[in-house]
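User: What would this chain look like folded?
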Amino acid sequence: MQSHLPFAPWLDPRARRLPGVMPLEYGDWLKVDDAYTGQLAYKAKLMSERRDTVLMYNPTCLEAARELLQVALAHLPDGFVAGDAILCPDGRTVVPDFKTPFETLSTLFQEDFVILQKQGDAHDLTGALLCFPASWSLAEKFNKPLTTIHDPVAEYGDSIARSVERMFTAIRAEQPLMRSNALVYADPDLHHPHRGSDKLRDTGQAGFIRSERQCMVRLPDTQAVVFSIHTYLVREADLTPEQAAGLMAHPITREEAIS
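Assistant: Here's the prediction, encoded as structure tokens.
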């Protein structure tokens, strides 16, 4: 878990309105925080023990995944030292392997990465490294279009679904976008691949705030869209007084928690 939440979506009116999308600079895309070492170790464990659950891709997606790795290496956040071997914030060195781009990404970054490619009129989920899903299963969404990925979230109706598809179509490589959500959990495990996996959430017991920083990046060559997810998990007790007061004024509903 992180020691603090750097951005509380419920405090920003732009983030509270679905889809809550804002412009993003490439220099602010990938993040390193105080949970880096723990989250990278957990990713390695999941890749070892549940690889088929957290990593799925079509062979046709590999070119886009290689381009994603190339673009990510060109925008390493603070804490990394670039070179033939990348020096990571926790002291590990990683030699990028473009033959296995998803695996390399899993050893470098806290973010999960979802690749969406335009198939006809819709963007389909053709590949993903998803170690920290928030109550959704990669197996259920793999190879499906963007408009079905959020079903059955009540607030993600047909009009918003069409709007989000138009937004993904309009994303330009030179102008990435980002949004943040907020989720309430009783169980601090980052790996929640199924709805209802946090069995205490419906009982009113809480204790943890989970917020996903979701970024949307158009890859210039393959034209695939990357949906990256940096997951923050903090104890409710570690919210600042302003964040705690704002959460009382703008409580997180279950619909928001799974959006």
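Confidence is low (pLDDT under 50) at residues 255-259. If you want, I can go into more detail on any region.
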